[in-house]
Every structure is written in structure tokens, then in C-alpha cells.
Amino acid sequence: MKKTTSLLPLFKQFIRDSETGKRLKKNGEKITKNTIDNYRYVFNNLTKFCIEANFDFRICNVYKLTTREFISEKNYWKKFYKKYTDFLYKKGCHDNYVGANIKTIRTFFNYLKDDKNIPTSDFQKLFYIRKEDIEILVHSPEQLKFLIHDKDFEKSLTPAIKRTKDMFVFGCTTGLRISDINKLTNKNFEKQNDDWYLEIKSQKTKTYSFIKLPDYAVAIYKYYKPKSSRIPIFKNISLFIFNRNLKLIGEKAGYTQPIHMTRERLGKAKNITINGKQKQIRFCDKMSSHMMRRTAITTLLILGMPEHLVRKISGHSHASSSFNRYVHYAQAYIDKEIDKVHSKLESY
């Protein structure tokens, strides 16, 4: 009879070892808090799945199995993958979320094999990781110019909302993530002759950036500049409040045009719905911190900066597939603008 070991306690230990630094990344760095939080989400999903589906989430030593038992074990993990992904899809999850769950479980299997010396026979390779291409939403150069230069609009904002607007403009200019913007201090700003530069190491990618700042970005820095180099430039703001403020800014700016959004389940695009009814989504409803980096990259591309220089600023490698999505988006924008010009030439 096969001897089995329950996996939920081992998954708890996997999280604990990642949190304490006992388990590290391949490059020797500690696992980030966000990644550990994602591990906890997967653990919670697995716990609920085991209860609701009455599924015994376990593993056994494959070295002690007969050929027949090995085939049975392989079928068990195929069954787990099918049941677990069905469980997530029935809860309304999309391909990216389901794929992220499966990716974490595959990582957990590698931990069992490499750190706990539990022979898994690489059954995790049976788990397919689905991905979906979500539409890239960015501010056009015209929208960005409005937020930068319209003084009447700026005067209509409360100080707290204005600070969010200025942080957003700064992020759309530099391509920084919100986590990096929240950590900016006077030490990150350097003046050389008459020019100001931003020098920063990305918290996520650990890459260094040295970016020349335009006058309006320098003005934002000087407006919020604290006396002490220990105090963050913009003061910390929660992601929830930041995104909520952005939606208010977008609505006040008139960015209320409807947009069509789809998400994928099992590779098939589905219209976004609420309670079975299609939801009318406005551009302002989708404004979030993610737009800053996307807007910065596409704006640089749209306005003609060579790709290799944009990659250097954004920290994308030459082979980055995610960067190529920005290139395709920028090309679509350029094509649209060219069509406007050509349409004026077609009539005589």
C-alpha cells in the first residue's frame, strides 16, 4: 500500500522557509513580501479546494511504486490539475490568476524535490500554465499634456488629490513603479550644471536608472521637496487610496469614454460581466498605478525614442516579451495617426 504525506503542512513550511530566508531565489536574494503574499493566497485556495472538493492533497515516494502504482499516481496529479483549475474557474477567476496559482504550485514541487528531498517525479510538468494578453491601457500624449499643464484643472483639485496627480505625472514621465516612487528621497535627485537627474535602483528588478528630468518633473520635485533627506518626497500613500484618487482624477478630467474589455478563461475571450450582465466600463474606471509605467514606455516610443534606449530606461532586457507588447501598441497608435494624415491627401 502506498504511503502518503499530506501536502498542506508542507506548503505552510514552504511559506515559512521563504519568509525567514531559509529558502532564497536562485540568485541568492530573499523572496519578496509580495511573492510570499501570493504563496499565502494559493495556500488559502488549496485549503478551500480540499474542503469543498473533498480532495486529499498528498504526495508519495515514487521510488517505492510499482509500474501500475506509478501510472495511478500520474493520473492522480492529472485529476488534481483538472479539478483545481475547474474550482478556480467556477469562482470566476481568469487565465492569468489560474496560471499564477499553477506556477506557484510548480515552484512548491521544486521546493519539495530540491529542499525537502521528496521525490516528485516531476509530476508538476503535467500542469499547464495559462496566460492571457490583457489590453494595455495608457494615457495618450494629449491626455498626459493636459494633466501636466492645465492650471485651471490643477486648481480644482484638493491638495491630497493634487499630490496623487503629481505622483502619477512623475511616474508617467520616469516609468517608475509606485513602490519606487514611494521611496524617493532627496538623495535620488542630482543636479549637474543646469540639468536635474533621477538616480534610482528599482526595488523589483534591482536595475539602476539615471534619468534626465524635464522642467515640469523638476518643478514637481521642488514643490514637494522635504528639508530632510530621510523623508520620502511624496510621503507614503496606500495603493488603494492612490488608485481610488486616480479614478476620481480621470472622471474629473473627462476621461469617461466607454472602453471594451475582455478577459480569457481557458483561452477563450469573455466580455467582463457583473452578475451575468455586461458592465459598461469607462476609461477612468481602469486608471491605476500600472498606467504610469505603461504610459511612460509607450509615450517614449510614440514620440520617436529608439527602442534600445527605451529598454535601458525601463529596465527591460532585449528578449523581453512584455516590452514587445508596448512596441505593438505604439505602432498601432502611429498607424492611426498616419491614417488621419493620409485621409486628408485622398481628397482633391
What can you tell me about this protein's structure?
This protein is mainly alpha-helical and 348 residues long. It has 2 domains: 4-126, no CATH class; 141-343, hpI Integrase, Chain A (Orthogonal Bundle). The chain is 52% helix and 11% strand. The protein contains 13 helices and 11 strands. The protein has helices at 7-20, 33-52, 67-90, 95-114, 141-149, 151-155, 159-174, 178-181, 215-224, 239-252, 290-302, 307-314, 321-345, and strands spanning 4-6, 58-60, 189-192, 195-201, 208-212, 258-259, 262-265, 268-271, 273-274, 277-278, 281-282. It has a 3-stranded antiparallel sheet. Strand 7 (262-265) and strand 8 form a beta hairpin. Helix 1 runs antiparallel to helix 2 (33-52), helix 7 (159-174) packs across helix 10 (239-252) and helix 11 (290-302) crosses helix 13. The longest helix is centred in the C-terminal third of the chain and has 25 residues, at 321-345. The radius of gyration is 25 Å and the shape is globular. The termini are far apart. The mean pLDDT is 89. It comes from Flavivirga rizhaonensis. InterPro entries: DNA_brk_join_enz (IPR011010), Integrase-like_cat_sf (IPR013762), Integrase_catalytic (IPR002104), Integrase_recombinase_N (IPR010998), Tyrosine_recombinase_XerCD (IPR050090). GO terms for molecular function: DNA binding. Keywords: DNA recombination, DNA-binding. Residues 142-339 form the Tyr recombinase domain.
